[in-house]
């Protein structure tokens, strides 16, 4: 693999490079991740998977490129090289060194995320499917935000969970009832399709050495921007200053607090599909919340 990497990196740096050393990093539950030290003094980030899902790495490279088009948006690692094969098993990214957040990081992050979300499209979804974790994410285009979220987010995950026997009958029925009346809970007035990161939990962002917010490992699509904000609250949350600064930069419709768990239901269902039963009670709690 090293030879292949060196060949792919030669045009990137305009010179022959070799891999001097490689250190594995933590955090990849789907892929192996390594920092490669090169003979030209540069470092690059390698993501590798012996058996990736179809188009897994090409979809990630496309997602990063799409996110990087947002002027004044967060910093996005550049995809430097993709293995030349029908279904690539590795992707080489720009290496960005992380640092500890300074006190103004939450505000900078909120402002850059609001700028990302100002990028819009005429429909919800995307011109290709991608992945949320290792689950396929359906991005079938829709003009209606509610139909998009209901059919290609909640119902798609519901079908996967039902087919694999992870969804008890009663939970399945309650989820169907919620989907049938979901427009009662979502206020989408004035909301345009926004360019979303799509999987914005705390493991997918950090400040670089200049304290610029960086985001990576995307599950990109054009959707309702509250979905990105809600995801930042699913496993721990950012300081309150972040939410206030976002609201100041790009105000949300009233009632976000009541809606956020609905957006996160997509991720809880996905975690149920990926990791099994321990997430069932969280799914059921969310359904109970909207059961009236």
What is the structure about, briefly put?
By secondary structure, the protein is of the alpha+beta class. The chain has helices at residues 2-13, 56-68, 105-117, 145-163, 169-180, 226-231, 240-249, 256-275, 280-289; strands at 19-24, 32-38, 43-48, 79-82, 90-94, 130-132, 135-137, 194-196, 205-207, 213-215, 221-223.
Helix proportion of residues, in percent? 25-40%
> SSE order in H/E notation?
HEEEHEEHEEHHEEEEHHHH
Spell out the CATH superfamily of the largest domain: Aminoglycoside phosphotransferase (APH), C-terminal lobe
CATH architecture assignment name of the largest domain: Alpha-Beta Complex
Low-confidence parts = none
β-strand percent reads: 15-25%
Structural class: alpha+beta
What is the mean predicted local confidence, pLDDT? 95
Task: Describe the model.
The protein has 292 residues and is of the alpha+beta class. The protein has 2 domains: 2-94, Phosphorylase Kinase, domain 1, CATH 3.30.200.20; 105-289, Aminoglycoside 3'-phosphotransferase, Chain: A, domain 2 (Alpha-Beta Complex). It is built from 9 helices and 11 strands. It has helices at 2-13, 56-68, 105-117, 145-163, 169-180, 226-231, 240-249, 256-275, 280-289, and strands at residues 19-24, 32-38, 43-48, 79-82, 90-94, 130-132, 135-137, 194-196, 205-207, 213-215, 221-223. Strands 1-2-3-5-4 form a 5-stranded antiparallel sheet, with helices on both faces. Strand 4 (79-82) and strand 5 form a beta hairpin. Helix 4 packs antiparallel against helix 5 (169-180) and helix 5 (169-180) crosses helix 9. The longest helix is centred in the last third of the chain and has 20 residues, at 256-275. It is globular and about 65 Å long. The model has no long low-confidence stretch (mean pLDDT 95).
């Amino acid at each position: 693999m090293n030879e292949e990497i060196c060949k792919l990196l030669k045009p990137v740096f305009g010179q022959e490079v070799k891999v001097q050393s490689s250190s594995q990093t933590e955090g990849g539950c789907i892929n192996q991740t390594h920092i490669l030290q090169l003979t030209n003094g540069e470092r690059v980030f390698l993501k590798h998977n012996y058996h990736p899902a179809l188009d897994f790495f090409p979809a990630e490279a496309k997602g990063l490129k799409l996110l990087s088009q947002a002027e004044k948006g967060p910093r996005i690692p550049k995809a430097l090289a993709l293995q030349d094969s029908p279904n690539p098993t590795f992707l080489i990214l720009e290496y960005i060194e992380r640092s500890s957040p300074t006190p103004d990081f939450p505000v900078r992050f909120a402002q850059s995320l609001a700028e990302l979300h100002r990028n819009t499209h005429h429909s919800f979804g995307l011109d290709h499917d991608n992945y949320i974790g290792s689950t396929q994410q359906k991005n079938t285009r829709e003009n209606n935000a509610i139909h998009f979220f209901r059919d290609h987010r909640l119902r798609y995950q519901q079908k996967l969970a039902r087919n694999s026997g992870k969804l008890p009958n009663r939970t399945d029925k309650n989820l169907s009832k919620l989907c049938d009346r979901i427009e009662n809970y979502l206020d989408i007035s004035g909301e345009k399709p926004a360019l979303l990161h799509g999987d914005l939990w705390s493991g997918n962002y950090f400040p670089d050495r200049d304290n610029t917010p960086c985001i990576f490992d995307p599950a990109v699509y054009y959707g309702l921007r509250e979905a990105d904000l809600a995801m930042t609250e699913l496993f721990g949350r950012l300081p309150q200053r972040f939410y206030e600064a976002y609201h100041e930069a790009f105000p949300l419709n009233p009632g976000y607090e009541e809606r956020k768990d609905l957006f996160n239901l997509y991720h809880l269902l996905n975690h149920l599909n990926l990791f099994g039963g321990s997430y069932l009670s969280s799914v059921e709690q969310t359904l109970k919340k909207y059961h009236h």
